[in-house]
Amino acid sequence: MSDDGEDKVIDWDEAMQQCGEDEEFLRELLDDLRSETDAQMEKMAETIESPGDSPFVQIMRASHVIKGAASNLMCAQLRKCAMELETTASAASKTDPDGKDKEIMKGVEDKFKELEDAVKRYHEYLESVGV
Question: How far is Cα 34 from Cα 127, in angstroms, rounded to an integer?
Fold first, then answer.
């Protein structure tokens, strides 16, 4: 990761500014992000495990939700990994709409695993600050 903030789990100072310097509110939003991220990750894991109709569109939408919420709360690692997964899934949906190509699915799975790692680091960070 680069030195431009994408190595941070969260830019606490920036996130505090986004929340009007209200730490209690920020902590509540970070907890909400954890819940939403976990729900979206579960959806994507189920889609990867049992691809149905348009699996990459479903993954693209779920990763988009994470990207947006993480962006709003200055969670750079989550945002970056979710954006990369969204981009990969979007491209995959155009070349393999039904998710039948194993090589294309593997590329999406690899990006999903990177997002899983970022989510794990996010959880660890929240635990370290008592959220």
Answer: 11
**Sole residue written with tokens 């994507």:** 44
Q: Which of 68, 73, 63, 65 is nearest to 9 (CA)?
A: 73
111 contacts 37 by C-beta, under 8 angstroms: no
HSE-up of residue 46 (Cα within 13 Å, Cβ side): 9
Task: Name the token pair of 32.
Answer: 């909400």
CB 54 within 8 A of CB 108: no
93-97 contacts, C-beta under 8 A, 24 or more apart:
93/54, 93/56, 93/57, 93/60, 96/56, 97/54, 97/56, 97/57
Per residue in 7-43, pLDDT tens? 789 999 999 999 999 999 999 999 999 999 999 999 9
pLDDT tens digits for range 70-107: 999 999 999 999 999 999 999 999 999 999 999 999 99
